[in-house]
Structure formats: C-alpha cells, structure tokens
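Just scan this pair:

***
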Amino acid sequence: MAGYGGDSLSASGRNARNSAANVLLDFEKVEDFGLYTWSPQGLSQKKKFSDVNEQDVITGLASGEDAAPPRLKRVASISVPLKFATPAPQAVPNIFPYDAGYIVPLHVALQRRGSLDGIDFLLGGSSLEILAQKKPIEEGTKYLTQRCPGTEIILLCKHKQYVQNYADVGFQFERLLTGQRMDGRHDVKKIESLHVMKIGGFNVLFSADVDAVDEEGCPVEMKTGNPMYFGTKVMFQMLSSGSKTMIRGDVDKRSRPPVLNRIQSVPLETMIQQNSATLQEAQKNIQEGLTILKHCQEIKEDEVGEVDFSNGRLIVMPRSSSDILPRRAVVEQLLREP
C-alpha cells in the first residue's frame, strides 16, 4: 500500500495544495492518505460483496502494492488530428474483484490513519453530484447507504451493474496520454486517491479512481465527453479524486473511426468558475443531504438502504436487495485497529 503522503496537512500545505478547493467555502482537504493500488489478479469473481472475505482484500492490495500509477506524458508531444484504433472489445464486468467495493478504502484508511474515529462519511466519486442536484436517481442505477459496522461512518455509494469495454474511445485516450498503445490491453488494476475533506462541518472520506498522475504526482482527470454536458459532475469528480487538472480530448465521434482533433488542459479553478452561478445552491444541497443522512434512523449497520429524491426531498428506502460490504465478521476483522 505504497504512496502514503502523510497524516494531516499543515495550514500552509492546505493553502498551497488546495487553492482550487478552497474557492468552495464549505470544502477543505484536511487529511491526505495518498494513492493506493488495487489489483484483481488471481481473485475469483463474486457477484455480491457479502461473499468477499478478508483474504480477498489482503490479496488484492498486496498484488498491487508495488505498482506505480500511470504517468501523464507531455501532451505537446502528441500530434493531432489522430485516428482512434478499432481493437477487439475488452469486456470486463463491474463486479468484484474488478470493482473492489468500499471495505478496501476503509481498510487502507485505517492502516494509514491508525483509527477511523471522527470520520462521518465515506463517499464515492459521484455522490456529491447527486446530493447537489437533488434529482431522482436514473433507472438502472442505485445509491446505496449503510452505517459501517463498528463505526459511525455512513457509506453512500453508486451501484450499477454493467460491463466495461476497455476498447472504447475514452480508455484509448487514457492509454494514449500515458504512453501506451491505443489498441493495447488495458491494465485492470485500479489506482485510487484517498483523502478526507471537511464539508459543511462533516469529515468526509473520499476514495476515487485516478486516471493518471502528473510529474508532481498529483491526480489528473481525463475526459473525451462533450463539455456542454459536464455541469458540476466533472468538477465534483475532480474534487473527490484530488485532481487539479482535467485533460480533455476533443473527439469527432461521427467519423469512422473517431478522430482526436485537439487536446486541452483545463485547471480545476476553471471548472469551478464555469459553475460559479450554481455553486452556492449546490453546496447548500450537499450540506443539507449530509445532515439528513447523518441523523437518519433508517440507516443501520446490518441493513442496506437506497437513497433517492422525490420533489427535491432526500428519502432513504430500507432493505435494499443489493449490498455494499462483506459480512459483519469480515468487516470487523479488516477494521481492527492496528
């Protein structure tokens, strides 16, 4: 679990490293646990997280322990326009071990922090957006919630069953920017950023996927989508992963094969400024949502609930058929204080 960046940030360090996040008055990074790597190599597929055991978690972390995160190559060295490749599909199901679940970041945070005391929430990369927008969750997607057994931490995480095709343009773009073959096999190891932010008075632990790191070791977000549809979603993803920069590919997807016309570097500050008109309302909604979840009696240790919105009101529906964590005994084993 290499890559630990320290216990907590000094006041000067927070100011220097989080100037963009501080534009958001209710957001401040207070602890940074660096990056960790998860490797599915050698682990069997499991459709339910409740089937995951302690050895699965230890093995997945140990297998990725020595892996270095992909590094962003010099963007100016890439000549455009550039045609994308047409490789055979690389289909990977979004189930364990390709999706490590949420016991893994909790275990890593405990190992690097020494205790989980004082942490109120564990959120995934898209949870801020749904709290900010207060819109009904789209069909086929769930946002699950549970109080982690033996702690005061409330989990809020996305659950969606799908098959990821690593031959798609977005992943080819990631491989191009990290010096790999566009038509090559995608590395299914996951690099995750782990840090705590103070949001509206709550300590929120984030574990978010990192596409690559820059020359300073900072996470970098990569996108090929249309920026007209980014809204606050990409901005919140960047805050969740600790990314200061987005590298965006301007892609003509009507061409066959698609063509990369331009590569643009967009700082987080720009993303924040572009959304400045809606940020105050978004922050208010996030704080309100976190407060409701923190005091919700329907969120229990031994039961998974689903979060949704109706007429702008957050509701928690108990007894979801999906799961988030392994069995209680496994959770307690993995979260024993060192």
Q: What stands out?
A: The radius of gyration is 19 Å. Residues 1-22 have pLDDT under 50 and may be disordered.
